């Protein structure tokens, strides 16, 4: 019997496996994906949001605890557990030396991400390099790793973990860490969570999944049925507006289109529906997937002119280009009359100001609903560009309720040997909304804590058995 069983293969699972092994426990990690697709959504990450009170190598200036907390409070609208959120924030300030020890390397922010150079530490080689480094370190430390091993069920004795099942195989362990993601790739569950809208559409049918196809929510559902305490709204997720041409799965971060704050967003009726300049893009980009999901056909169109080009990270697919606004409307298949009226009204409402995309500037519209409160400039300089966007789901927020020991709860009480980390518990901190890099902060903090807690429980059980 192994001491600690880790179910999952992404950042949180790997952090748990490494910490448990460092604490002296024997560890088996089960990854549902084949080796070439290992790592879950962590393959696609870029950075980690980090608290720091002074400059640290790749991080500029300071990003103190209270500012991080206020940023999180704002994007979640207060729908967060402050104690657990502050635990994540404080852990983010001390984890990087440990990450380096396990082969993770950091680099300064590149052009297009300089606005994050104070708050976020970027991984050299991105998420794939981070995942590969952790797997190498885990193998070197003696963690057993099995691929193509989706766990179908978990055997419980009340609140205590007993065994996991992979097909007909039964795997016992003294303790277990659940870190196998949300349910975003389970279309049936997503349809159930979102339901039909007032137009009779199933919005989930038009969602694209930015990450892994293996996050089916099997064990999340199993734990619900086993009586675990659940937290979060099943319709809430890290939901980004991404290029409508992206693949159904694993498009990753390159499918994101980051020019929304520099232009206007229209629905398929060529009408604006929200303030594109509400706040800085890293704080508000993750609201746009949900906003687009609420539009007819779950599609939106970002319209910019040549003044915006080179001011945002270039997306992987080029935009639709036209030399006039009517030509662009026709190329995008939007109603030309509505399109021209919307753009003319917007241009007329823009008031002169000092444009500066690095601050909340004074370029705003006047007398227009919805307003654009910052970075509002007339869209009047050819060539013009349009990007069709659809909701891109990164991970869902419905999860297992936990505490700062990462224990799964049953009827308000923590399990003694079942722990949770990563996207399966992120809803404790993220009731809604998102800010860049915080998913990695949560996964790293709770992955490390879950591994420590699981090892402690397993080693205590081993000692008790030896004494008996």
UniProtKB/TrEMBL annotation:
FAD-dependent oxidoreductase 2 FAD-binding domain location: 3-429
Alphabetic keyword roster: FAD, Flavoprotein, Oxidoreductase
Signal peptide start and end residues: none
Matching InterPro entries: CobZ, FAD-dep_OxRdtase_2_FAD-bd, FAD-oxidoreductase_2, FAD/NAD-bd_sf, Succ_DH/fumarate_Rdtase_cat_sf
Cofactors (names): FAD
Database matches in Gene3D superfamilies: FAD/NAD(P)-binding domain (3.50.50.60), Succinate dehydrogenase/fumarate reductase flavoprotein, catalytic domain (3.90.700.10)
Keyword Flavoprotein assigned: yes
PANTHER family on file: FAD-DEPENDENT OXIDOREDUCTASE 2 FAD BINDING DOMAIN-CONTAINING PROTEIN, FUMARATE REDUCTASE
NCBIfam families listed in its UniProt record: CobZ_N-term, PRK08274.1
Name under which the protein is recorded: FAD-dependent tricarballylate dehydrogenase TcuA
Annotated gene: tcuA
């Amino acid at each position: 019997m192994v001491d600690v069983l880790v179910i999952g293969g992404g950042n949180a699972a790997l952090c748990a496996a490494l910490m448990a092994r460092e604490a002296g426990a024997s560890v088996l990690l089960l990854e549902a994906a084949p080796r070439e697709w290992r790592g879950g959504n962590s393959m696609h990450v870029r950075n980690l949001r980090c608290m720091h009170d002074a400059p640290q190598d790749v991080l500029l200036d300071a990003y103190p605890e209270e500012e991080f907390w206020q940023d999180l409070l704002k994007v979640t609208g207060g729908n967060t557990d402050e104690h657990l959120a502050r635990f994540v924030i404080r852990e983010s300030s001390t984890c990087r030396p440990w990450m380096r020890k396990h082969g993770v390397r950091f680099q300064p922010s590149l052009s297009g991400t300089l606005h994050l150079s104070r708050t976020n530490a970027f991984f050299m080689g991105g998420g794939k390099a981070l995942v590969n480094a952790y797997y190498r370190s885990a193998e070197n430390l003696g963690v057993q790793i099995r691929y193509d091993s989706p766990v179908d069920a978990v055997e419980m004795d009340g609140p205590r973990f007993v065994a996991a099942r992979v097909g007909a195989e039964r795997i016992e362990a003294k303790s277990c860490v659940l870190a196998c993601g949300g349910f975003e790739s389970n279309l049936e569950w997503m349809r159930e969570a979102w339901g039909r809208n007032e137009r009779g559409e199933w919005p989930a049918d038009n969602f694209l999944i930015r990450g892994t196809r293996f996050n089916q929510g099997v064990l999340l559902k199993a734990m619900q049925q086993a009586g675990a305490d659940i937290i979060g709204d099943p319709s809430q997720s890290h939901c980004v507006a991404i290029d409508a041409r992206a693949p159904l799965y694993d498009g990753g971060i390159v499918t994101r289109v980051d020019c929304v704050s520099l232009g206007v967003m229209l629905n398929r009726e060529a009408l604006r529906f929200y303030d594109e300049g509400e706040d800085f893009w890293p704080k508000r980009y993750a609201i746009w997937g949900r906003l687009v999901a609420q539009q007819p056909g779950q599609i939106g169109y970002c319209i910019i002119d040549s003044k915006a080009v080179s001011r945002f990270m270039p997306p992987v697919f080029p935009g639709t280009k036209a030399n006039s606004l009517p030509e662009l409307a026709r190329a995008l298949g939007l109603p030309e009359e509505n399109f021209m009226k919307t753009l003319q009204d917007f241009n007329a409402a823009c008031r002169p100001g000092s444009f500066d995309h690095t601050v909340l500037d004074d370029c705003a519209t006047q007398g227009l609903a919805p307003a654009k409160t910052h970075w509002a400039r007339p869209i009047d300089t050819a060539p013009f560009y349009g990007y069709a966007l659809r909701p891109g789901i990164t991970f869902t927020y419905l999860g297992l309720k936990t505490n700062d020991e990462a224990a799964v709860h049953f009827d308000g009480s923590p399990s003694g040997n079942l722990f949770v980390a990563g996207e399966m518990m992120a809803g404790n901190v993220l009731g809604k909304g998102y800010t860049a890099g915080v998913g990695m902060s949560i996964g790293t903090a709770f992955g490390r804590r879950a591994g420590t807690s699981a090892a402690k429980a397993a080693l205590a059980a081993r000692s008790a058995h030896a004494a008996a």
